[in-house]
Amino acid sequence: MFHAEIDTSKRVLTMSFSQHVNSTEMRSCREKVQTLLVDVEPGFCLLTDLTGLDSMDKECSTDLGEMMSFCDAKGINAVVTVVPDPKKDIGFTILEPFHYGKHVDVMTYETLADAIQSLVV
Asked: Does the domain spanning 2-120 belong to CATH 3.30.1330.10?
């Protein structure tokens, strides 16, 4: 299961993944993110919460990587990911260097509260 939305006033794209995510859901997430970012100006931030994630199919990596590359092409500025348990990092850390440019700040936090605080600063 996934949820994606954008706060255009704060220029923050938020995604959360929970339970088990299969490749069909990840493809839907990629398509939704592409739609959400149509009119977004460069300099936005992505907040991804993996707190409720139990597992993700390995086939999700293709769409996840494409989503990262699309965000990079749209001018993403920072990526903030919540990974409460290292076992829940189902490839984000591996994919990020290949899909985000060196100009993108990538930060990982154990709690959503810490991640949100980093966006406020």
From this structure: no
Residue (of 2, 80, 61) closest to 36 by Cα position: 2
Residue 42: both structure tokens together: 């460069």
For the chain, give the percent of residues with pLDDT over 90. 61
Neighbouring C-beta atoms of residue 72, cutoff 10 Å? 16
Map the chain to HEC letters: CEEEEEECCCCEEEEEEEEEECHHHHHHHHHHHHHHCCCCCCCCEEEEEEEEEEEECCCHHHHHHHHHHHHHHCCCCEEEEECCCHHHCCCHHHHHHHHCCCCCEEEEECCHHHHHHHHHC
The pTM assigned to this predicted structure is 0.88
